[in-house]
Amino acid sequence: MNFSAGSRWAFRLLMAVGLAFIYVPLAVIIVNSFNASTVFAWPPREYTTRWWSDAWHNTGVRDAVLTSIQVAVISTLIAMVLGALLAFALSRYRFFGRQTLSLLVILPIALPGIVTALALRTAFRTILGIELSIWTIVVAHATFCIVVIYNNVIARLRRLGTSLEEASMDLGADTFTTFRRVTFPNLRGAFLAGGLLAFGLSFDEIVVTLFTAPAGVTTLPIWIFQNLFRPNQAPIVNVVAAALVLLSIIPIYVSQRLAGESTGGGRI
Amino acid sequence: MTSQSSTTAAAADGDRSARPPAVTLRGLTKVFGSGGTEVVAVDNVDLEVVDGEFLTLLGPSGSGKTTVLRMIAGFEISTSGTIRLGGADVTRIPPFDRDVNTVFQDYALFPHLTVQQNVEYGLRVKGVGKADRRARASEALAGVRLDGYGARKPTELSGGQRQRVALARALVNRPKVLLLDEPLGALDLKLREEMQVELKALQRQVGITFIFVTHDQEEALTMSDRIAVFNKGRIEQVGSPAEVYERPQTQFVAGFVGTSNLLTPQAARTLLGQDGHWAVRPEKIRLLAEGEPIGPQQRSAAGTIGEVVYAGPSTRFLVDLDAGGRLTVVQQNLRLSSTDVEHYRGNRTLLLWDREHEFRVG
Questions:
Q1: Distances in whole angstroms, Cα of residue B306 to Cα of each of B70, B255, B336
Q2: Which residue has the higher pLDDT, A140 or B20?
């Protein structure tokens, strides 16, 4: 498409405004985490690392971080196993109800989080009669983490096609050897990228967590939510938020690199 | 090697019946889909491929030739009929337990492995020791003129080089039969012609039975000991390139292998005094020079030159016969140039061919 110089500049301006709208508030959070003023006078007159050291020594924050990591790691691992198996079944085999199953797997990502959360809470407490614990959070998180893994793996399986697997079997490798030596190595990037995304999703999830966490178990997003309106905690909330921003960039960056790296060469 | 090349030479001499079959297909049928949407891809095919033969399955896309190849490899299970490799029935045996190897149309090289590892793959999964594996793979790579390329990744190779890696990867296993699924399709014309010669030479040298799938009639005619012409899931004719080209048994074969040059039934009656469909290959017909006598074994037909197409080494004349219908005549451009050619259009002419070159089809 061709645009006049004037409209090109208009588009550039729009893009700049859009990006600024997203990133300026994030930058403010990070700058404020070093702002020496407890009421965050803007622009900051003095800078300090005191809030960072306070946050580091705050046991509430530490416990919340550990709980979040625990939940995210376990639910991601469960989702990686189940999501990859699902992707294999749905892309490599033809069976009755295949289309329906594929829809049912993706649906949780489209359903409103609060509905999923409520449904899971009801199922755990009323129907199954299970006490809420860290494990109910793990299971709840795994339900949406599966979708991310499934999507990544099935997209890669589709692009990979079946000819590499056929070539492997043609050369004498049975089904298991073919998976181990050919399919999985070509899938690994997408699989790990999906895992990192799932970890990120679980790490900052709040709605489902609120509904499935027992009293006394606090993940990091819940800790932020609980301390948001306590003025004396405000500096630490800022630090935690800033740390979360930096921590979420890492898995996304790595997962993009992984997803890109093994597709760059294309299919041979 | 010497004994193998002599048996291959024997195949060309038509001494086929004396040697054991490498592949036997009996009543082979493949139906895709189910219920109301069934498609018969392969319809009751019988075929015998003898040891050391270069056999080509030739046909248009959708004619079932690739499905036959995939059933021999074991990627598709036949709906009915049997496949025997050597003496053994392999109809229900999975691909990894069959002594055949395939060169795929898209090469299907493993992108995460080096060239050397690709070629070693078959030996590795069969448990061949490291030293032996390495030696045989290097030898196979040398055999396709790729020594020194072992450490590269497939992405770092050209199309022709990938093609040769795929060949080495299959041949290093010394299979009884090598299956090739349109392996030259992705190469440009010059490379394709080079590879045709190279493949044929390689096959003579290793003495392995080759079953080659293509839709390119020229490729089939150049390389094969025998050609099986496929149409709509069935074999229309099996024979040597010369038999298939000079004596096509059906209208389809006459049209698909070489240029279709059918006489209309009316023209056949007027010119040959015969009923039915008759044909003459375009290069067997000449434009009669002025005052040239017509021999008793020759046939002539009057007509008007409709179109003239200059094609470098040759020129195609499309001649409308007085007796009805149109014939294509191909002449080598011995003296003609592209500007002379233009003057022929609309001229009256007399066509000439030897009687032995006319043949009945269908």
A1: 45, 21, 18
A2: A140
Residue of A170, A188, A263 best to disrupt the B interface, most CBs of B under 10 A: A170
Question: How much of chain A, in percent, has pLDDT values that exceed 70?
Answer: 96
Distance CA A81, CA A83 (A): 6
How do residues A66-93 score in pLDDT, each as one tens digit? 999 999 999 999 999 999 999 999 988 8
Assembly ipTM: 0.81
| Mean pLDDT taken over chain B | 88
Tokens of A67: 């709980």
Domains and CATH numbers, chain A: 57-264 (1.10.3720.10)
Choice among A28-37, A162-171, A212-221 with the minimum mean pLDDT: A28-37
C-alpha torsion B261→B262→B267→B269, nearest 10: 130
Domain that holds residue B345: 262-360
Q: What is the mean pLDDT of chain A?
A: 87
Determine the Cα–Cα distance for residues A222 and A65; give it in Å rounded to an integer.
11
Is residue B237 in some structural domain? Answer: yes
Mean pLDDT value across residues A173-201: 91
B112, B125, B162 ranked by CB distance to A186: nearest:
B112
Tell me: the pLDDT tens digits for A158-176?
A: 998 899 999 999 999 999 9
Collapsed DSSP state (helix, strand, coil) of residue A169: helix
On the question of pLDDT at B11 being above 50, the answer is no
Which member of B108, B155, B170 has the closest CB to residue A164?
B108
Choosing from B218, B251, B284, the residue where a domain stops is B251
**Beta bridge pairs of residue B318:** B307, B328
Query: Which residues are CB-contacts of A216 (< 8 A; sequence separation ≥ 6)?
Result: none
Asked if B155's CB is within 8 angstroms of A167's CB, the reply is no
Q: Are residues B178 and B53 in the same domain?
A: yes
| Cβ contacts of A267 on chain B, cutoff 8 Å | 106, 111
Beta bridge pairs of residue B315: B310, B331
Q: Say yes or no for a CB contact (<8 Å) between B106 and A168.
A: no
Alpha carbon distance B225, B207 (integer Å)? 13
**Strand partners of residue B301:** B351
Average pLDDT score over residue span A28-38 = 83
CA nearest neighbour of B18 among B67, B51, B42: B51
